[in-house]
Amino acid sequence: MAQKPRSISATAPRLGKALKRSFFDRSVHEVAPDLIGATFLVGGAGGIITEVEAYHHTDPAAHSYRGPTPRNQVMFGPPGFSYVYRSYGIHWCVNFVCEEAGSASAVLIRAIEPTHGLAAMRRRRGLEDERALSSGPGKLCEALGITIAHSELPLDRAPIALHARTEAPEIITGVRIGITKAVDLPWRYGLKGSKFLSKRF
DNA sequence: CTATGGATGCGCT
DNA sequence: GCGCATCCATAGA
Fold it and tell me: What family is it from (predicted)?
């Protein structure tokens, strides 16, 4: 009989108040660090956001940089919606659209600390290791069951739920991961000391 | 621990 | 055709 893995999360964190859609009607550079520590749930499974990256529409690494296309059109719409795309033909990645309608900026959600729906997350990932469940943009989408069907959805309506953090976290910044353009911009944000990051800062 | 390469869908040139 | 906002298994230090 396999030994049950020891849980890393010491306590079940309480949820903050629900984030309103207007939370995203600000600069992507304000929204991105404010998302660290928030709780992101899809269908009741998810956890605390530990790592994000900002993609501004003037940034060559942003999908919206070259203008609207069928894939990225939701980025050119109102803020507070999801943008899901396929990465490397295999993985899904989820973004939150920010700023005024048409500005086409978004925050890539890169990692979460699992706190809710652990059994479902483990089942979808085919993994027991809590640290590996959602410590990467593709991993967390698989763990939460996010696919293209979850794109262009409002972030304040089921099946998505967002709760504001209850305490101000210490935030670390760094350069973004896995991109080939604008590689030096320090637009990656992380929860200091978290064991649930995709890579060290 | 770090480094490397394969799998894979699809948007865009 | 080319090139990715990735993950994982494997090899080597």
Answer: Belongs to the DNA glycosylase MPG family.
